[in-house]
Amino acid sequence: MSRPSSPLGLHKQLDAIWRTPPGLARLSSVNHTILGKRFMALALLFFAIGGLLSMLIRAQLATPNSAFIGPELYNQIFTMHGTVMMFLFAIPMFEGFAIYMLPKLLGARDLAFPRLTAYGFWCYLFGGSILIVAMLAGVAPDGGWFMYTPLSSKPYTPGINADVWLLGITFVEISAVTAAVEIFVTILKMRAPGMALTRMPLFAWYMLVTAGMMIIGFPPLILGSILLEMERAFDLPFFDPTRGGDPLLWQHLFWLFGHPEVYIIFLPGAGALTTIIPVFAQRPILGYRAIIAAIVAMAFLSFGLWVHHMFTVGIPHLALAFFSAASALVAIPTAVQIFAWIGTLASGRPRWDIPMLYVAGFFVVFVIGGLTGVMLAMVPFNTQAHDSHFVVAHLHYVLVGGFVFPMLAAIYYWLPHISGRQSLYRLSVPAFWLILIGFNLTFFLMHLTGLMGMPRRISTYPSNWGWDWLNLLSSVGGFILTMGFALVLADMVLQFRFGARFRRDPWRAGTLEWATATPPPSYNFASIPHIETRADQLLPAHIGPTLAGGNGYLGFARNGVQETLAVDMMSGAAEQLIVLPRRSFLPLWTALATASFFLALLFKLYWLAPFGALATLVLFLFWPLSLGARTDRGPLDIGRGLAVPPDVEAPDNVTVLANRTALVMNGTLFASLLFGGLFLLVVAPNWQGTSGPILPLWAGALALVTSLSAAGLTVVAGRNPGATMRLRVSLLATLLMQILAMALLTLAMSALGDPTGHARQAVAFVTLGYAVLHCGLGAVIAAHALWRHAQGYVSARRRTELALARLWNGYAGGVVILALGLVALLSMSGSAP
Amino acid sequence: MKTMIGTPLVRLIAGFVIWAVGFVVLYAVQALGCAYGWGDWHRPVLIGLYLLALIPLIWLAMPARAGAEDGPLHMAALWANRAALVAAILVFLPTTFASLCI
């Protein structure tokens, strides 16, 4: 351990450990500050691309009978506009924002899994590039951003356009699911000591709930994309009604993701508002507890209204009533937050600055979008306005109001943190007015064209229907809006170039991120603070120099490793010392291997795809090589008179929590698959009088016994890690049992009959395939634990690998039970007249 | 992970977890009843499930016993659970009157 005598000395020591060198080594960066900025910069680039596409749309619709773009190209342009804005801008933008901000806000030196952050970034870059390159090549997706079947099925979209969407977006979504796990674990476990959950800034609460929603919300979309791609590639008829499939299954899976997605995008924006408003109101936020309750209510209710996108497909009144009521009800927790913000401003001493302009713009735009949302929640109105430009207006008011305006406020509020310089203001004010006026001119008028009957997604319209001047004004508004965004971009560039420098906390904020130097150093905090009050009412300008002097926790460099702290989830008491992995090219190589898998599928090189998947798996197995310890070290000094054990010696460390979280996400995907099977069984046409799959009972029963035995053996292995022989025999037996279970389940799959013949066989085939995959993963993780034990990384204290083997093999056992149950049900339901 | 069990964090989401489970069960039973022609039994089953879902929600929405843990998160949990109760009463109410299969 080395304790320097000055803050500068400490900075030099820590920076030598944490920094990313220039040149090609930048590609190996795993630092959250760098990756957060890369995420946001790339998201803004995609925002510009999406914006250009919207200009083309408005140019086409400016006049009737326009010949500017033909309908085929227009289909690609509006599909890509929606896809880029939702998947390549909005989600990655808030991910980047959270990746950059959360550790600083919470008092940590990085996120829980820095290499996973880097892997997510590369997946985002490569997946997004697939979509953009496809667009430049003229084969972009063209079936609308929600890819409804049967339009997106093979007979009606025979080219690779839909495959580009399904594979590109699934590739990009890897970054979303990895970010969700990271954010969830980091918030729960990596706060500064003393920061109990009840002291956490509300932005962290918002991101915790958002991450939870992503964990549950994204798997249905990923499953839907996998099933649709399997239908397109291998003719498994999940969505083909002539063979027992149902196009509505796609709509259910898509909107199970798609509606919560709106709130997933809104909540980070609301979190930013909740941070910014009290600073400018010069008083603490009103209703801290009410806001927490409102976020939770909103998160859950948002999962109960996906069918309001499907009101016109022919659903019984009772189901319509469920979803209509939930859709209207979600306005209440939203209103609680809005009134808390207004109350904070009303009871404070508001001062105006650029971020507050966008906060005001948010109130106007978002409230209008919310009110039209309540209108659309009503079934009779929804039926009339369905698929009209009214819906286009509503969704832009909600998404631009709920995300873009708060993000613009956030950019003006936090850009000085990134740049170390203050805004110039000359362009900021006109930019705001251009955006506000341009936005309302563009989209308010769409309410009217929608009510006058103008449908969405039409490439042109005749001139005698009364839509002409409204569309022209909308297009003019669109160009004004673009000019506003161009000014914001120029303003950002000028701030980096000419903005005045400042030391710390230019806004007199109360949150910890302003206690870092600006721009922030690679390690965030030279020492980690102890939090004794609510962490949105701190004095960063006072705390910053104290921490820079090393007067908090870990105010020293030790053994050249990257150290930070883990805490008890509730109380925030210091619990473990985490040693984070240093920079590495492994995430880049792993993402390239993953890209080879997706590209092989896209170009129908199916023989190559398994090699890509295998290469990805093998590269992931290299990741833990630099982690862990071969000796028990016991409690280590962390400063301020405290000592805590390394996290590898703690049973409930971040790795175990992350794997539990990943299993919840995985379980949601499996639950969606079970739902899909049951949905088709109950609702889909053409199931009567067809024979069901024949599950060989002996193979199923034996697979169940072996898989559950494997799960039991991992429990035995974990009971006494000191008993070397018993542990090794148990893990070896686990490995063999899971391999046997895989063989038996594969045998059962082969006995199901042709999976392309009927959706029943296809569902059974995929469900058993999922079980085979998870028995395989259980085997790999057991083998990994065995290998780590042989290398000396496992002991009575260091038992993370054993915990992971128990978790994944237990999960595999559960999957086999449920998979066989579903297949048995499908088998029995076959021969009804 | 033991610290999570029984903590205010679990109580914070408990009501809405029950609401979500109730929602899924009611939606599924509505579909099953229509697909397999439950006839006159269909609505009583749905109403029974509706009332069943309300029981734990009412319990969660009651103020904590004297001496129970207090604090900001506890209060947030109480209000979230009360919101879940109200959401369940309103959202599940159509089981009593809306047409089931048309």
From TrEMBL, chain A:
<feature type="transmembrane region" description="Helical">
    <location>
        <begin position="609"/>
        <end position="627"/>
    </location>
</feature>
<dbReference type="GO" id="GO:0006119">
    <property type="term" value="P:oxidative phosphorylation"/>
</dbReference>
<feature type="transmembrane region" description="Helical">
    <location>
        <begin position="202"/>
        <end position="228"/>
    </location>
</feature>
<feature type="transmembrane region" description="Helical">
    <location>
        <begin position="585"/>
        <end position="603"/>
    </location>
</feature>
<feature type="transmembrane region" description="Helical">
    <location>
        <begin position="663"/>
        <end position="683"/>
    </location>
</feature>
<comment type="pathway">
    <text>Energy metabolism; oxidative phosphorylation.</text>
</comment>
<dbReference type="GO" id="GO:0004129">
    <property type="term" value="F:cytochrome-c oxidase activity"/>
</dbReference>
<protein>
    <recommendedName>
        <fullName>cytochrome-c oxidase</fullName>
        <ecNumber>7.1.1.9</ecNumber>
    </recommendedName>
</protein>
<dbReference type="InterPro" id="IPR035973">
    <property type="entry name" value="Cyt_c_oxidase_su3-like_sf"/>
</dbReference>
<feature type="transmembrane region" description="Helical">
    <location>
        <begin position="356"/>
        <end position="379"/>
    </location>
</feature>
<keyword id="KW-0679">Respiratory chain</keyword>
<keyword id="KW-0479">Metal-binding</keyword>
<dbReference type="GO" id="GO:0015990">
    <property type="term" value="P:electron transport coupled proton transport"/>
</dbReference>
<feature type="transmembrane region" description="Helical">
    <location>
        <begin position="427"/>
        <end position="449"/>
    </location>
</feature>
<feature type="transmembrane region" description="Helical">
    <location>
        <begin position="764"/>
        <end position="787"/>
    </location>
</feature>
<feature type="transmembrane region" description="Helical">
    <location>
        <begin position="319"/>
        <end position="344"/>
    </location>
</feature>
<keyword id="KW-0186">Copper</keyword>
<dbReference type="InterPro" id="IPR023616">
    <property type="entry name" value="Cyt_c_oxase-like_su1_dom"/>
</dbReference>
<keyword id="KW-0472">Membrane</keyword>
<keyword id="KW-0408">Iron</keyword>
<dbReference type="GO" id="GO:0022904">
    <property type="term" value="P:respiratory electron transport chain"/>
</dbReference>
<feature type="transmembrane region" description="Helical">
    <location>
        <begin position="39"/>
        <end position="57"/>
    </location>
</feature>
UniProtKB/TrEMBL annotation, chain B:
<feature type="transmembrane region" description="Helical">
    <location>
        <begin position="44"/>
        <end position="62"/>
    </location>
</feature>
<keyword id="KW-0812">Transmembrane</keyword>
<protein>
    <submittedName>
        <fullName>Uncharacterized protein</fullName>
    </submittedName>
</protein>
<feature type="transmembrane region" description="Helical">
    <location>
        <begin position="83"/>
        <end position="100"/>
    </location>
</feature>
<keyword id="KW-0472">Membrane</keyword>
<feature type="transmembrane region" description="Helical">
    <location>
        <begin position="12"/>
        <end position="38"/>
    </location>
</feature>
<keyword id="KW-1133">Transmembrane helix</keyword>
